Amino acid sequence: MAFVLPFGANSGSTTNDSSQHPQSQQQQQYHFAANPAQQAQQARLQQLQQEQQQLQQQQQQQQQQQQQQQQQQKLQQLQQQQQQQQQQQHQQQQQQQQQQQQQQQQQQQQQQQQLAGAMNAMNGNMAGGGGGVPMPAAPTPAGHQAELNYIYGMVEELSRQLADNRRVTEDIVSGLGRVRNKAKTLNMSNDELIMSAAADIQAENQNLDSLVSVLSESLEKSNFSRDANAALLSRYASALALMLKQFHEYKGKHVSDVALWHRSYRSQLDEARQENSRLREQIWEMRTHASRANESLRQFRRKYYEDERRWDHKIENTALRQELRFWKRMAMPELEEDDPYWSGDDDVIDSAEKVRLREMEERAMQDQMMEGQMEEGEEEGEEEQEAAQGSMMGGVSMQREETGGRGLSAPPLI
C-alpha cells in the first residue's frame, strides 16, 4: 500500500510545485484516484453523512409531529373548557329561571292571600264601620310564613262557618216564605196558621221519634259491633304476639341446634381426617419398610446367587451325589427303582412321603380358600360400613390397599 500525504500538508509548496511541475501533480492525482481504500473510506464517510442528515430530518419531522399533537391537545382542552363554561352558564341560567319562577309563585300566593283577606273583610268578617285596611303589596318576610299560614287556616274556618250560617238563615227565610205563601193562598188567620204548623210539627216529631229510635238502634248495633271488633282485634293481637314469640323461640332453638350439629359434624370430620392421615402415615411407613426389606432381600439374593464358591460347591456336590448314586445302583441291582431305600436320592421319593405331601398340599389349598372367603366377606363388610359412614359424613371413605394378602417370596430351595 502506498503512503499518501494529507491534503492540507505543505499547501504552499504544492501550489508552487504545481505551477512549476505539472507532470508531478498529474502523477499525484492519478496516485490518489488509484487508491481503492481511500475511495471506500470517502464513500463510507459520505454514507455516514447522508445517514446523519436523514436522522436529523427524521428527528425534525418527529419534533414537528409532537408539536402538532401538543397543539391539537391544547385546542381540544380549550374546546372542552369552552364547553364546560357553556354548560355552567346554561346551568346558571336554568337556576336563575327556577328562582324567578319560585319568586313569581310566592308573589302569586301572597296576592291570593291578600285577595282572600280582602274578600273576607268585604263579606263582613272584620268589625267596624269602615272596611278592612288593604294589605300592602310588599313581599311577606320569611319568618312570618308560619303565622300567616295559621291565620289563613283560621280565616278559612271562619268562612266555612259563615257559609253554614248563611245556608241555615236561607233555610229559615225559605220556610217563612212558604208559611206566608200558604197563609196568603188559604186566607188563614194566625191561630189557624199556628194550629196547622203545630200539626205539621207533631207529624215531624213523630217522624223524628221513629227516626231517633231507628238511629238509636243502629247506634247500639254499631257500638256492639265496635266492641266485638275491638275484642276480636285484641284476641288477634294476643294470638299474633304469641305466634311471634313461639316463632322467635323456634328460630333461636333451630339456630342453636344447627350450630351444634355443624360443630359436631366438623369435630367428627376432623377426627375422620386425623384418622385418615394417621392411616396414610402408617401405610407410607409400611411401604417404606417393605421397600427396604425388598431391597435388602434383592441384595441378599444377588449376593447369594453371585457367590462363586457356592456355585462351585453346588456343582461339586451334585457331581459327587450323581457318582455315588451311579455306584450304588451298580452295586445293588437287586433293589427296584421305587424302593424306599432310594428315598434319600433327589429323583426318588418314598410313597408314604408322596401321600403325606399330597395331604399337606390339599390342606394348604383348603386353608387358603377359607382365608380368601373370610377376607372377601370382611372387605365387603368394611366397604359397606365405610360407604355408610361416607354417606352420613358427606365424604368419600379411604380405600386401603390390600397389602396383607401379599407375601414375600422366599428364595428358591437348592
Quick description:
This protein is mostly helical and 414 residues long.
Give a verbal description of the structure.
The protein has seven helices and no strands. With 414 residues, it is mainly α. The chain has a domain at 40-113. Helix 1 packs across helix 2 (22-33).
Beta-strand share of residues: under 5%
Number of DSSP E strands: 0
Structural class: mainly alpha
Helical percentage: over 70%
Instruction: Please give the largest β-sheet.
Output: none
- Sketch the topology as an H/E string, one letter per element: HHHHHHH
Mean pLDDT: 74
Number of helical regions = 7
From the N-terminal CA to the C-terminal CA, the straight-line distance is 94 Å
Supply Rg.
66 Å
Low-confidence stretches: 1-34, 122-137, 393-414
Query: Given the C-alpha coordinates, what overall shape results?
Result: flat
SSE blueprint and pairings:
Layout: H1 11-20, H2 22-33, H3 36-122, H4 145-186, H5 190-305, H6 308-331, H7 351-393
Helix pairs in contact: 1-2
Coiled coil: 262-289
Biased composition (Low complexity): 18-29
Keywords: Coiled coil
